[in-house]
């Protein structure tokens, strides 16, 4: 279960990659703009601000997130991205920090590229920090006897989660797109008693929490705290610097030049 309040605790940090992604989309007057994995809708609102004449379509698989988005005035619906099919007038598709939860998302990207109209835009960003000390600490903890059976198959323990920028570029180029792909490591300045734990509790630890009782979750967090504190020691002034790698892809369907406008 997603908790919108926990997720929004770092809204400024989480929003920055979204705007960096949006800056590379050169659509001028799209007819329909789709947000797949809209979360609590705070970022979806900026799509309507940028493209005021467009129909905004928003989806998320979390009823709690969709409820929060609707409270902000976003006409969001509950759905799994695996089931989404673009309407004929879809000119822009945006997915922000969502596809890493879908193991077969490479197949989805190929399918969407084939279904979208020529000149449309497909843009997404995914966390690229699955080998970071934060996730390694979680993997080490889930290897302990007390947790191994319950948590052996959480998503970032099983197989490859995302592609490299080059991997996505090859995939979508072969699908007939012109592709701009890159990666960025943000250095987030965090504060608080256990800031990295607070950060990953809203995202990466969600599958862990969903499998534990409240008491087990409390015990798991208590065991994880020293591992994260060792990996990300706080400065004497109380600040903690948290590196976070993200992978970005902006693809235009069926156009020979990336610089060409959508319409």
Task: Describe the structure in your own words.
The protein is an alpha/beta fold and 263 residues long. It has a single domain, classed as 3-Layer(aba) Sandwich (Rossmann fold), CATH 3.40.50.150. It contains eleven helices and seven strands. It has a seven-stranded mixed beta sheet, with helices on both faces. Strand 1, helix 3 (44-50) and strand 2 form a beta-alpha-beta unit. Helix 6 packs across helix 11 (214-231). The longest helix has 18 residues, at 214-231. It is globular and about 50 Å long. The protein starts with a helix and ends in a 10-residue tail after the last strand.
SSE layout and pairing:
Blueprint: H1 4-8, H2 11-22, E1 32-36, H3 44-50, E2 55-60, H4 63-71, E3 76-78, E4 90-96, H5 105-115, E5 121-127, H6 133-142, H7 145-151, H8 165-174, E6 177-190, H9 195-201, H10 206-210, H11 214-231, E7 240-253
Parallel strand pairs: 1-2, 1-4, 2-3, 4-5
Antiparallel strand pairs: 5-7, 6-7
Helix pairs in contact: 6-11
Kindly report the average pLDDT value. Answer: 90
Structural class: alpha/beta
CATH class: Alpha Beta
Number of strands: 7
- Please tell me the total number of domains: 1
Query: What is the count of DSSP helices, taking H or I runs of 4+ residues?
Result: 11
Binned strand content: 15-25%
CATH topology: Rossmann fold
Order of helices and strands: HHEHEHEEHEHHHEHHHE
Morphology call: globular
